[in-house]
Amino acid sequence: MSKKPILINRRALIAAGVATVLLPSLAKAQQGNEPAGQRRTDMKIRMTFGSQTMIATLYDNPSARDFYSMLPLDLTIEDFSSNEKIVHLPRKLTEEGSGPFENEQPYDLCYFKSWGNLALFCAPYEHTGLIRLGRFDEGYEALHIRGEFPVRIEPVR
User: Fold this and answer.
1) What is the pLDDT of residues 67-121, one digit of tens each?
2) Of 79, 115, 132, 147, which is most buried, counting CB atoms within 10 Å of its CB?
3) Full domain range(s) for residue 134
4) What is the CATH number of the domain that holds 81?
5) How many domains would you assign to the chain?
6) 3-state secondary structure of 49
7) Are the C-beta atoms of residues 58 and 68 closer than 8 Å to each other?
């Protein structure tokens, strides 16, 4: 049985060359640390409860900007489950521009759309129903302290 030679026309060859150059860079862009709408900004917040202080950097998305515009706030932080604390906000945040995100990590600061509360994670989680607002940079160990506390949330200027 003889094999037929595979013939490639010039267009197919050029298309293959372009794909070889472009696809790796597109894949790399999608695998970065910060998905679309998740780029860090200069908006930083301080959360203080008890003698604990945490600093988070917010991301460049409409929900994070809406949250930042509400500050300062005096609220309550409480345990929700073994991997998160929650803070009930005085009003819901905009959900404009929200969408799925990747690379969920402990110490993410998120907004739970259904209940309108902040979700502060200290262990792995799944992003279902969440908008990531930012990540804690400092003091995130405080999320492991169990209990309910008054919390002050304010911009860091």
Assistant:
1) 999 999 999 999 998 899 999 999 999 998 677 787 889 999 999 999 999 999 9
2) 132
3) 40-156
4) 2.40.100.20
5) 1
6) strand
7) yes
